[in-house]
Amino acid sequence: MDFRKKTIRDVEVAGKNVLVRVDYNVPLEKGKITNDARIVASLPTIKYLLENGARKVILMSHLGRPDGAYVPELSLGPCCERLAELLPGIEVRFSNMIYGPATKGAVEALPEGGVILLENLRYVPDEEDNSEEFAKQIVESTGAELFVQDGFAVIHRAHASTDAIAKLLPAVAGFLVEKEVSNLEAVITKPERPLLVIVGGAKVDDKQPLIEKFLPIADQIAVGGKIAADGYKSVDKKIYVAEDFACDADGLRLDIGPKSVGVIENMIANAKTIVWNGTMGKVEDEEFAAGSLAVARMMGASKATTIIGGGDTVGFVESLLEMEKGLEFNLLSTGGGASLELLSGKKLPGLEILQDK
Q1: CB 199 within 8 A of CB 292
Q2: Which residues contact 261 (CB under 8 A, 6 or more apart)?
Q3: DSSP readout, 116-160?
Q4: Inter-axis angle of helices 336-343 and 204-214, to 10 degrees?
Q5: What is the pLDDT of residues 278-324, one digit of tens each?
Q6: Which of 10, 124, 232, 350 is the most buried (most CB within 10 A)?
Q7: What is the pTM of this model?
Q8: What is the domain class of 182-343 according to CATH?
C-alpha cells in the first residue's frame, strides 16, 4: 500500500539540522537497558539522514512517566550510550537539557555529521500539554530546519513533540513510521486471505473496537486472554471464543486451555494473514504462558504475513525470540496503543499533521 505522507526520501536533507522524534522508551533495570529493539528500530532513519548529508541530527524522546519532574532513573543517558555503540565511527553526544543556552551550545559544538540526543522530554510538563512555546524553544535551541516523525509508538498522542512541533517546521515521516503504518493499513485494506485476527489481553473496552473494526474484514477472529476468561460472548460465527482454561489453585482462569489452543493453532495453519494483539494468559507466570507460547511459535513458523501489536504481546514475543532464533514475523509493532488505534480505524494526530505527498 502506498504511504500517503511525505518521508525523508521526498525532501532535501543535505546541509540541514534535522530534528527527529524517536521512541527510546526502553525497559530499564538498575540503569541498564534490557531490550534495545526500539533504539535499533531508529537506525535506518538516522543512517539515511547522515548518508544523505544532513548537517546535524538531533534526536528527542521520552522515557517512562516522570510526570513533568526530573527523575534521574529515567534519564536518556543510557540510551545515548547504546546508540553510540550501534553507530561506530559517528560522533554521538548527549544533552542533559532539552532546550535553552546549554542545549544550543551543545548542538553548535557537535561536529557536522554528528548525532545528539536531548534529555527526556517528559521531564517538562509542557511536552504532554502540547505546548507550542515549548516546541518553539526546542526548535530555536537546536537550529532545526526539518522535523522527522519516527516515533510510531507516540503518534496517537497530540504532544508537543508529535503535534505542536510539526506546525513550526516542514514535517515528514521516518522509515519506521512508514513501515509500521504501511503494514498495518495494508492489513485493513488488502489482506491476503484467509485473514485471522487473534485478540487477547485484559480489557474488553480496549479490544472491542478492534473486534468491531475487523468483523467485516476478517475471515476469523479468535478471542482468548482475560477477556475470554471473564466470559466474553459472541453469537457471530466468525468469532471463536476460548472455551477451556488453565486455572490456578483458587480456580482463577489464567490461560487458555489445550482444546482452545488446538482450535487456534488450526486457524493459524490455514491463514494467509494473521494479526495478534493481546496475550492468551498471564504470561509473566511461566505456568500460564503455554497458550501464548503456542500461538507465537505457530505464527513464527507460518508462511503467512504475521503482524503482532500491543506492548505486552510484542514484549513477550521479543523475549521468546532471544531464546528461539528460528521464528520469523513480518512486523513486531513498536507502538502498543498506536497500532491498536490505527487498526481500530482511529486518526493518529502525529501522523495526520505530517505533509501529504
Answers
A1: no
A2: 280, 290, 291, 294, 295
A3: EEE--GGGSTTTTTT-HHHHHHHHHHHT--EEEE--GGGTTS--T
A4: 40
A5: 999 999 999 999 999 999 999 999 999 999 988 789 989 988 998 89
A6: 350
A7: 0.86
A8: alpha beta
